[in-house]
């Protein structure tokens, strides 16, 4: 028997291998064991908590309740497909009120097409039960209560600003564009389709135009789409606005109108205004003839503030005057108000045609630069001043012999499938009466003008814009106190660019 085995000084209960206390693997094994025990404890506790919650009335349980986080609103899927935009892809949102709708519904009845246009007029309250909503009129919806929003000026501004949000939340199918306007806005829907079809509706777009009066642009914003003239918001931008608009509106409660607040929120998204010159706020006072007779080379999309300007045709109510403009629009939408210039070098006449509306004959040779500049027959919107405007103007000459003889559209009809014939009659109310010169008398001898033209297809506006040309027929001869003019495409290298050209 060895000494080590018989040594009575050793404790038999202690491990004989002294290296165990210094074994580096031992602490690691202990930690792993503790970690497993902890995991099993957590797992058992979780299972117990789940079982407790499943069989307990959680509405009466308040312990261990975590604060609820706001649930993100599900994204409404946008319209797919690359098919060309048509009128069914546009949803109109018209700001109105029950008090004004009875009178202003006359304007929407001019352009609303029940079988094709989509949208609603948004009212501040529900009509009474004995109120008969006109058949074929734009349908209505009642806006949500917006009195919780701050507003330092217009109390209706938050409600009307939210029309784009409430329209988006309707989740109507195949909506590519949300178009906002007022209840006294007159839209020209086919031209609106032409304009919006140029843009990719799957991108973020904010499309419209600003005011004609500089004082309005200074006060509200040069880069803002004025709501009366209307503006268009693409589906993706509307989706972004739907997420932020309610929070955004109170940040701009000091702004005056709903359009200004929408603009401010669109800027927060980072989308700029894309200007289309066919949207018209008509922020002027007086006679709009100068603007309409020298329309920019762009499709006419909208007119606004028509209660605040003179009738666009003399001796008619504004509604009857607009009906007279709608007749040629329906025959050739893309051409309405488009200018063409003709010159008669023998008689030294200059002729300006604003198709479907008016013709001016000058008994002198006038350059195109002057003819395309509107007569200033109006004042600024706010101060009734003579200037400034966002476009050039020219004064009416004090010399009656330098004033044009003016004609207004009288009849319009189709010529086959592809053409049109319009006649214009001289307006005594616009003709100068104080000129006794013989050359002016020769112009006054023309009582009517017949204009022929091919229809201008909507694809015309997909090309670089260019004013079309015209030519005087029958070598300028006047038969039965009438003359004929033909509008046509300009021919290469054969366009009379100025009255002095050979």
Keywords:
disordered N terminus; 19 strands; 13 helices; single chain; Spore Coat Polysaccharide Biosynthesis Protein SpsA, Chain A; 8-stranded mixed β-barrel; elongated; 7-stranded mixed beta sheet; 502 residues; alpha/beta
Give your account of this protein's structure:
- It contains 13 helices and 19 strands.
- The strands form 4 sheets. The protein has an 8-stranded mixed barrel with strand order 11-12-13-15-16-17-19-18. The chain has a 7-stranded mixed sheet with strand order 3-2-1-4-7-6-8. It has a two-stranded antiparallel sheet with strand order 5-10.
- 27% of the residues lie in helices and 19% in strands.
- 37% of the residues are buried.
- The N and C termini lie far apart (141 Å).
- It is an alpha/beta fold and 502 residues long.
- Helix 3 packs parallel to helix 11, helix 5 packs across helix 8 and helix 8 crosses helix 9.
- Among the domains are: 189 residues, Spore Coat Polysaccharide Biosynthesis Protein SpsA, Chain A; 155 residues, no CATH class.
- The protein is elongated.
- Strand 1, helix 3 and strand 2 form a beta-alpha-beta unit.
Write a short abstract of this structure.
The chain has 502 residues and is α/β, with parallel strands linked by helices.
The fold-level CATH name of one domain is Spore Coat Polysaccharide Biosynthesis Protein SpsA, Chain A
CATH architecture identity of one domain: Alpha-Beta Complex
Name of the top-level CATH class of one domain: Alpha Beta
User: How many β-strand runs?
Assistant: 19
Question: What profile does the largest beta sheet have?
Answer: 8 strands, mixed, barrel
Large-scale geometry: elongated
- Assess the beta-strand content as a share of residues: 15-25%
Q: Determine the N-to-C terminus distance.
A: 141 Å
Strand order of the largest sheet: 11-12-13-15-16-17-19-18
In round numbers, the mean pLDDT is: 86
Global structural class: alpha/beta
Residue stretches low in confidence (pLDDT < 50, at least 5 long) are: 1-22, 57-75
Give helix % range: 25-40%
Total count of helical runs of at least 4 residues: 13
Q: What's the Cα radius of gyration? A: 36 Å
InterPro entries: DUF604
Pfam families: DUF604
């Amino acid at each position: 028997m060895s000494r080590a085995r018989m040594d009575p000084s050793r404790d038999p209960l202690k491990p004989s291998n002294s290296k165990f206390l210094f074994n580096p693997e031992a602490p690691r094994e202990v930690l792993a064991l503790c970690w497993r025990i902890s995991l099993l404890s957590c797992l058992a506790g979780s299972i117990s908590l789940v079982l407790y919650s499943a069989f307990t009335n959680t509405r009466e349980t308040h312990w261990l309740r975590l604060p609820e986080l706001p649930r993100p609103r599900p994204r409404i899927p946008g319209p797919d497909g690359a098919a060309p935009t048509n009128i069914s892809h546009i949803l109109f949102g018209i700001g109105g009120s029950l008090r004004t709708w009875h009178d202003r519904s006359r304007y929407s009845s001019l352009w609303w097409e029940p079988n094709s246009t989509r949208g609603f007029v948004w009212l501040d309250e529900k009509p009474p039960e004995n109120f008969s909503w006109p058949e074929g009129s734009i349908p209505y919806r009642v806006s949500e209560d917006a009195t919780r929003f701050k507003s330092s000026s217009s109390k209706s501004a938050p409600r009307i600003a939210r029309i784009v949000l409430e329209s988006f939340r309707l989740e109507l199918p195949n909506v590519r564009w949300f178009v906002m306007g007022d209840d006294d806005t007159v839209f020209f829907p086919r031209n609106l389709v032409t304009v919006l079809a140029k843009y990719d509706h799957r991108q973020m777009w904010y499309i419209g135009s600003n005011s004609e009066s500089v004082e309005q642009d200074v006060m509200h914003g040069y880069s803002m789409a004025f709501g009366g003239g209307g503006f268009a918001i693409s589906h993706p931008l509307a989706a972004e606005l739907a997420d932020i608009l309610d929070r955004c509106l109170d940040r701009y409660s000091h702004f005056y109108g709903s359009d200004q607040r929408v603009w401010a929120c669109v800027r927060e998204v980072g989308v700029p205004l894309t200007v289309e010159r066919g949207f018209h706020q008509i922020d002027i006072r007086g006679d709009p003839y100068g603007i309409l007779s020298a329309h920019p080379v762009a499709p006419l999309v909208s007119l606004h503030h028509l209660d605040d300007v003179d009738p666009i045709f003399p001796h008619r109510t504004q509604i009857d005057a607009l009906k007279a403009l709608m007749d040629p629009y329906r025959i050739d939408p893309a051409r309405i108000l488009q200018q063409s210039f003709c010159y008669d070098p023998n008689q030294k006449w200059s002729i300006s045609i604003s198709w479907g509306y008016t013709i001016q004959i000058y008994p002198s040779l006038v350059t195109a630069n002057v003819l395309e500049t509107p007569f200033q027959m109006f004042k600024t919107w706010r101060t009734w001043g003579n200037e400034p405007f966002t476009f050039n103007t020219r004064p009416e000459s004090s010399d009656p012999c330098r004033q044009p003889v003016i004609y207004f559209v009288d009849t319009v009809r189709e010529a086959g499938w592809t053409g049109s014939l319009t006649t214009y009659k001289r307006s005594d109310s616009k003709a100068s009466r104080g000129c006794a010169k013989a050359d002016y008398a020769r112009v006054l001898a023309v009582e009517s003008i017949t204009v022929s033209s091919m229809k201008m297809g909507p694809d015309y506006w997909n090309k670089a814009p260019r004013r079309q040309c015209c030519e005087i027929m029958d070598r300028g001869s006047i038969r039965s106190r009438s003359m004929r003019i033909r509008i046509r495409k300009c021919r290469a290298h054969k366009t009379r660019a100025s009255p002095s050209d050979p």
